[in-house]
Every structure is written in structure tokens, then in C-alpha cells.
Amino acid sequence: MKRKIKKVFCALAAALLLFAAATTAFAADGGAKTLRFDADGNFTILHLTDWHTVYPMPAIQKQYVVEALAAAKPDLVVLGGDMSEASAADQPAAVREICDLLIAADAPFVITFGNHDYLHDLTIDEMFALYKENGGAYCLSEDEDPALFGCGTCSIPIYAHDGGKVAYCVYCFDSGCEYKLNFASADPDPAAQSVRSAGETIVSNYDSVHPDQIEWYTRRAEELKAGNGGAYVPSVVFQHIIVQEIFDKIWPAAKESDKTNLMCFDQKTYRMRAIPNLSNIKDGYLMERPCPGYYNYGQLDAMTRNADVRAVFCGHDHSNSFTVEIDGIDIVNTPSVKPHFLFKKIDWGGRVITLHADGTYESRVLAGCELAQNSGSGILSSGAVNRVELVLLKAWKAFADASQRLWKPLTKIIYK
Asked: Is 3.40.190.170 the CATH classification of the domain at 31-414?
């Protein structure tokens, strides 16, 4: 009997020690040196965006997240924004449910807020506080400079395996909600760099990364460079809303004579032809028109000058999963965790990103329908996708892949 009691006591003590280690592991050194490359020089990120979940979370979404975490075994999870659609009263419980999934998988995480995260009766600072409170030591997000636009803009250093230097940096930006500019006089906000009629108001659905965030990034990149022997530290960027330059690669700028099918921004107008320039899509699918912010403050230009950013990962456009290179930087869209309609479920899910200590990276979509075919998967039994759909989606994916092989060379000629 005494031996049994002793065994139980030892087991409880071990469990408490493991719990204490788990809850403090990511807080050591202020959270700075806790993220490291493994012995093979790899670091895995799981990008999960656009959950648009209610409370309680639908079984299909919860099951996908559980299985994606188990399959990817990420060193870091990036929550890409537009997380919870719960009521203000249910938001604390909804955020707790999200955080609990990550904590159960022993996965540290950060969040980049989306436009829908602003559309609650809670402020974005209050939403940020909920993730910090419920994530505890697992939530590595910081609002590095509270004076900056939005909330949660931060840099996460990834150290070399030996902990000696920063080998990679993960930047997180809040890209805001809507762009709204009200001109009370003929002298508008200088950020717009254009003069409009007094009293005119411009409202766009979406905002962008702002000038103060870009200046902050530039300073931070220089700080990392100074600590890296004068060489810029390889970096990746996460934000919710995609950069405006995506249209430069997919649709041409419109001529003044064009009157129809136009997409207008403050600085540029694009003619939305029925067939986009698919030749510039390196991989993945363009299933809907991208929705960047109205005003381009020069984020991509600043990152191109430094040549440190390898890729900008975005969400926002739920069924897109493409990679497009612009001036040496990959612009990558990760699809939504919330299941799409039938034929847009090809890449429904999240994205696994592997950073390499040599400064390169690779990524792939971890589709819900891919996981559903694994032995022991509970995705089919949790609803929103069934075996008939899996068969149809396999056929549809084969057709889509074949179509892209045809259209890529043709659109290259058309848009030349």
C-alpha cells in the first residue's frame, strides 16, 4: 500500500514538474531565446487564419486544428486573424477555446489581427488582452510599441540551434480594418498624397500596414543587422490583409480609356479581365479576387530595399492558396480554417512553413481534405465534408492542375 502511495505521489510530482516546465519554457529570457532551430537547422510554423468561428467552435474546425497541430508538430503557430465571430459576451470563452487547443498541443503562438477582429464591442486592445490572458506563457505576441497603428505588431527572433545568434526573424503586423479618410478641408491627410474636395470621405473595406509600422520594421531590421555582423537577418512577415502589389502581377494597370471591370485604389486602377495572369503564380490556386487595402504606404518597397524578407504570408481571401513573387519577395496566401463551399475546398485548411537556418524557406498547404484521408482522422465524422466530396475534390483538383498547366503559358503570351 505504501509503495502504491509512493508511486502515485511520484507520478503527481512528475506531472507538476512537467506542467511547470511547460508553462515557463516560453517565458525564459523574456521569451527571446526559447524559439530555436532544431539540430537539422529547421523551424516549423503552422499558419492558421480566418477561423471565423462561433462559440462553441464547430466540430469540423476544432477537429481540423487538432489534427493539423498533430501532423505539423509546429514550433510556432501564427493565428492569422479574423478568428472569432462570437458575441462580445462570449468572446472571452471563444478566445479561451482557441487558446486551449494550442496549449493542449504544447504549441506557442502569436496573433496578427484581421479586420473582423475589430468588429466587436471590444476594442482591439481588449481582444489582445484576452489572448495574452488565456494563452499565458504560450502567447508570445507583444505590442512592441503601443504608439504604433493597431495592436500586436512585433518581431519574434528565431535563434540558431546553439542559441548563439538570431538566425531568422518573424514579423507580425496588424493590417487594421477599414480605410477611412474624411477631408474636412482641401488640405487632406498628407499620407494620402493627393488633394480632394473638402468634406469628401473615402471609405474602403480594408486597410493596410501603416507608415509608422513600416518605419518600426526598418529600425528593427537595422538593429538585427547590427547584431549579425552587418548582414540582414532572413525574415518572414505575417499579416492579415495582402499587399496591393498583388494586382501588378495578376491583372494589368488599366488605361484611361477603360470604363468597365475596374478595380480602383488611391494610386492605381486595374482592369479586371476575366482571365488573370496565371503565369505569375508559382504554386497554389487563385480561387477569388484578392482584396488588398485601399492605400499603399510602401511596405513592400521598404522590405525590398533591405532584401531580408523572404515571404509575406497573408490570409483574408479565404479560398486563395497561391504564391506570387514580387521583386524577390514571395507573397503567399493561406486559405481559411473555416471550410469553403464544395469546389473551393481543394486547399481548405492551413499552411505549414519550414524555415531553414541557411536563410531559405519552403511552405505547403495542409488541407483538411488531405488530413481526412488519414487513418483514424475524425474530420469526416465531424461534418461539413464527406466521402463523396473527397472523390469529387480529387477529380476537381486534377482538372484544376491540368487547367493551370494550360493557362499559365497562354496568359504569359496574352499579358506579355
From this structure: no
Please name every residue paired with 353 in a beta bridge, in sequence order, or none if there are none.
Answer: 45, 363
DSSP track, 32-78 = SSS-B--TTSEEEEEEEB---B-SSPPHHHHHHHHHHHHHH--SEEE
Query: Quick check: bond before 56 cis, omega within 30?
Result: yes
Q: Where are the domains of the chain?
A: 31-414
Q: C-alpha cell of 350?
A: 492551413
Main-chain dihedrals φ then ψ at residue 259, nearest 5 degrees: -125, -15
What are the C-alpha distances in Å from 359 to residues 234, 307, 370, 407, 411? 5, 12, 29, 32, 32
CA distance 407 to 320: 17
pLDDT tens digits, 301-350: 999 999 999 999 999 999 999 999 999 999 999 999 999 988 899 999 99
Question: What is the predicted pLDDT for the residue at 265?
Answer: 82
Cell of 249: 502581377
How confident is the model at residue 272, as a pLDDT? 81
**pTM of the shown model:** 0.88
Dihedral sign, Cα of residue 254, residue 256, residue 257, residue 260: positive
Locate 19 and state its grid cell.
Answer: 506542467
Q: Per-residue confidence at 29, pLDDT binned at 50, 70, 90?
A: very low
Q: Do residues 170 and 74 touch, judged by C-beta distance below 8 A?
A: no
Dump the DSSP string for 64-132: HHHHHHHHH--SEEEE-S--B---TTTHHHHHHHHHHHHHHTT--EEE---GGGGSSSS-HHHHHHHHH
Q: Are 77 and 109 in contact (CB under 8 A)?
A: yes
| Angle in degrees, CA 102, 53, 299, rounded to 5 | 80
For residue 406, pLDDT beyond 80? yes
Residue of 130, 62, 141, 142 whose CA lies nearest to 102:
62
Q: What is the largest CA-CA distance in the chain?
A: 91
CA gap 119, 264 in Å, rounded: 25
The Cα 192–Cα 334 span in angstroms is 29
